[in-house]
Write a structure and sequence with these properties.
With about 200 residues, the protein is an all-alpha fold. About 70% of the residues lie in helices and about 0% in strands. The longest helix is centred in the N-terminal third of the chain and has 35 residues.
Length: about 200
């Protein structure tokens, strides 16, 4: 296993462990089912957007894991856009930053963190921590990880995954913004006026 692939696998495991741990903690300590992506009674546009996100992110995660453990074989199948180790390691750095931003965002959200739009419970609007800089800090973390994966393993597959996931996340953000305007009203509008959607 190359150094690049080892670092990639470590980052993948770090991301996955933090994500699963957050779901387990919310469930066990607070009795919160935080993963509501594509679940429950929701209008068609929300449900279809959430399914798009679910499929795109599963494809991203599977590709990231497989590239980390079987990159030489996959490169033979998929080809490579370029072979520049410095760019590949810049990708590692971008994924690292994205993973850190995602973890900080989950921590800042505390018990308000959800995967998908939760219509069944009331949370509070989180504007502290990384959410002072971005209204969608966790999604910024995801976008950085999508881009970093392409830079680590530049191929048509990872480029398609980057474009699909950025589009899927953006559509989900638009749905979440509608939901948050309905739930939090003026508080959310005021927050939106002083905090950018992304950065």
């Amino acid at each position: 296993m190359t150094t690049l692939n080892l670092l990639s696998l470590i980052l993948f495991c770090t991301f996955l462990a933090s994500y699963v741990l957050k779901l387990v903690i919310l469930n066990r300590k607070n009795n919160i089912q935080a993963n509501v992506l594509g679940k429950g009674k929701k209008i068609t546009t929300i449900k279809s957007t959430e399914w798009f996100v679910k499929i795109a992110t599963l494809l991203w995660g599977a590709t990231w894991f497989l590239m980390s453990i079987a990159e030489p074989y996959l490169v033979n199948l998929l080809g490579r856009h370029y072979n520049l180790p410095v760019v590949n390691y810049i990708g590692v750095g971008i994924v690292s930053i994205g993973c850190a931003v995602f973890i900080l965002a989950m921590a800042a959200m505390s018990t308000s963190w959800r995967v998908g739009i939760d219509k069944s419970t009331t949370t509070r609007l989180v504007t502290r921590g990384v959410y002072k800089i971005s209204r969608n800090a966790a999604f910024v973390g995801f976008d950085l990880m999508f881009a970093g994966l392409y830079l680590m393993y530049p191929s048509w597959l990872t480029l398609v995954i980057l474009v699909l996931n950025v589009a899927a996340i953006h559509l989900l953000i638009l749905q979440e913004e509608k939901h948050l305007r309905l739930v939090f009203g003026e508080e959310y509008r005021s927050y939106s006026s002083r905090t950018p959607r992304y950065l």
